[in-house]
Amino acid sequence: MKFIKWLLTLVVTLILLVAVYLSVFFDPNDFKPEIVDAVNKQTGREFVITDDLSWTFFPVIGINLGGVSLSNPAGFTPKAMLEVHKAVAEVALMPLFSQKIEIAELSLDGAIINLVTRKNGSTSLDGLVGEESGQKAPVSTKPSTKSLLSDINIGGVSITNTQINMIDEVTKQTQTFTLDSFTLGEFALDKFAPIAFEFSATMPDMTLSSKGKGELKLSRDVKQLVINDLDIDTVMEGESFPNKKLETSINLATQIALDKQQLSVDITQLTAANISAVGKLGVNYGSQIPQINADFQIGDLDLDALLPTTESVDTTQQVPAAKDQVAAEPDLSALKGLDATLKLTVKSIKVANLSTQNWLMDVSIKNGIIDLTKLNADLYQGKLLLNAQVDARQAVASYQFDNNVTGVQIRPLLKDAADVDLLAGTANFNVKGKGKSLIPLQLKQNLLANGHFDINDGALYGVNIPQMIRSAQAKLKGDLSSQNKEEHKTDFSSLTGSFALDNGVANNPDLAMSSPLLRLAGKGSANLLTEALDYRLTASLVNSLKGQGGDKEALAGIDIPLAITGTFQKPEYALDTKALLNNQLKEETEKAKEKLKDSLLKKLGGF
User: Fold this and answer.
1) Which of 20-34, 187-201, 406-420 shows the lowest mean pLDDT across its residues?
2) How buried is residue 81: exposed, middle or buried, by Cβ count under 10 Å (0-12/13-18/19+)?
3) Beta partners for 528?
4) Model confidence, pTM
5) Strand intervals (E) in 126-274
């Protein structure tokens, strides 16, 4: 016991002697000029320490630092790039004798960083690495060895009231990022330590506030960093958000292999604007272009609710755009710096009032090419299968696609997608195409595509062809008072055709419709730019109209011409009465010729 007492007394005495020596003979302020001069030479900036440096002692030894500033380059506003109100670093004395670092406290308060970008392109960071010296730090050729430290312990880290101002003189805009607080609890290697933060930002078009908490662990070999149970809640406000506000919440776990430069993130919960998702993210950041792999599962996604509402515009009052105002191609050059693969499943998606379910998508981005290798979805009781590619290696992007739709109920799809009540039935559809430019107008003009469709057990809405035939019969008999009081609808068993799209115009040369009553053939065009329709149909009877208010004989053998004009939104159907009368007259003329011929033959036979 006496030995222990004497040992403790000796240790305390040594600490007191060190404290007295440092206080009396080793004033840290003596080194202020050397520190200031070294920083000035290295950066070419003005470095100032206005407050006196002071020691802290038992049970820890440390130093207090305050009133520190580092200037921006000459001519910049504001003058200071960095200002620190107070910084404290305290290290436990006794563990140093055992090759251990035990930091009792690290704290930083009231730091302000002003990063300026001037109109000539110069920034606050220019020259900080000492390029003017023309010398590079010597590179060690000795193999790396293990750290001489056997352990690191930190009692706590606290950063408060740290603000970063990003000032752009070109756009005359300032973005402010504030770390209100960051705390790290008691930290030791191979042990989890609590972390928490509060962060806010002010930008020209939005404000942001975020807070989070979790725990982290650093392996003893300093090769792996693990962050567990990290909860982050964020609120963003701005005119571009639905209801001018967006709240998000995420819970995740992260592992970073520092030696292999690999990161993996497991997102166990993500919610944003009534959207929920889970997923995994992997990043290999050791190569020149980081490799990214993502796999996400998303619930119901209503994109219509996320997009800002647009007020109806009176097109008659619109001012025509200037002729020299040309839309610009989207800048996709950033895709050249990506190497990413994404697997995505979505329970349902609603966009432009169009509803789909059970999305499954595989997409990759590499060397400026977006490759959608698979997209499957349930679409109005049918199936959608799509693959596509966008090549963004040139300034004007090109694309190609192959789309197949099977078993879709076409009437609700057209009503939801375009508010068009034109067709009903079970539709199969395929189209393959390619084009250049992603500007909406040029996309329609440059698209080259070919396709085929067939619709079974359906109906054509907006026209009642049997009723039009009955009306035609009445007109041929001289009755011009016939009125159409029946539903404008024509049932059919099948409707098929092919189409080609070029220069914004879709042409269909071979429309064919079959029903128990009639056959319908047609051809024409639809302009995607003006939405104008120009279509001609020819109907012919294949059965009696009895039970439908007419009979077959009245129009037997006569092709009944119909015309479809108007627009996609308001198609107009009409019976070509003139052509119908011409057909009828032609038929009567042929009958008269046959009667005259028979009469002449009889008379000649009598001679």
Assistant:
1) 20-34
2) buried
3) none
4) 0.70
5) 151-154, 157-168, 173-184, 187-188, 193-203, 206-218, 224-237, 245-257, 262-272
Task: Write down the mean pLDDT value for the chain.
Answer: 79
Is 546 or 154 the better-scoring residue by pLDDT?
154
Whether 81 and 45 have beta carbons less than 8 Å apart is answered as yes
Angle ∠(406,410,413) on CA atoms, nearest 5 = 105
List beta partners, residue 251: 231, 269
Q: What element of type H or E holds 87? A: strand 80-92
Calpha distance 327→334 (Å, rounded): 20
Q: What is the SS3 assignment for 551-588?
A: CCHHHCCCCEEEEEEEECCCEEEEECHHHHHHHHHHHH
Please enumerate, as own/partner, the contacts of 189-195 that have beta carbons within 8 Å and a separation of 24 or more. Answer: 189/151, 189/152, 189/218, 189/219, 189/220, 189/222, 190/217, 190/218, 190/219, 190/220, 191/217, 192/216, 192/217, 192/226, 192/228, 193/154, 193/217, 195/227
Widest CA span of the chain, in angstroms? Answer: 164
The residue type of 574 is A
Backbone φ, ψ for residue 5 (5° rounding)? -60, -45
d(CA 349, CA 358): 8
End-to-end CA distance of the chain: 162
pLDDT average, residue stretch 374-381: 94
User: What tokens appear for 129 in the block?
Assistant: 């690495």
Question: Which residues on neighbouring strands pair with residue 254, listed in sequence order?
Answer: 227, 265
Of 398, 403, 402, residue with least CA distance to 435: 398
Q: 75-134 pLDDT, tens per residue?
A: 899 999 999 888 887 766 555 555 555 667 788 888 999 999 998 888 988 877 544 444
E strand residue ranges, 261-353: 262-272, 275-284, 291-302, 339-351
- pLDDT of 146 reads 44
For residue 173, CA distances in Å to 82, 113, 166 come to 20, 16, 8
Q: At CB < 8 A and 24+ separation, what contacts does 289-293 make?
A: 289/337, 289/338, 289/339, 290/339, 291/339, 291/340, 292/338, 292/339, 292/340, 292/341, 293/340, 293/341
Distance between CA atoms of 462 and 485, rounded to whole angstroms? 13
Rg over alpha carbons for the chain, rounded to the nearest Å, is 40
- Residue 123 is given by DSSP the state B
The count of other CB atoms within 10 Å of the CB of residue 596 is 10
User: For 200-247, how does the pLDDT look when each residue is reduced to its tens digit (9 = 90+)?
Assistant: 999 888 999 999 999 999 998 889 999 999 999 999 999 888 788 899
Dist CA 52 CA 55 (whole Å):
10
Between CA 8 and CA 449 the distance in angstroms is 90
Most confident of 299-303, 423-427, 469-473: 423-427
Residue 275's closest CA among 302, 311, 254?
302
Contact residues for 536 (Cβ-Cβ < 8 A; gap 6+): 522, 523, 524, 561, 562, 563, 564
Neighbouring-strand partners of residue 355? 350
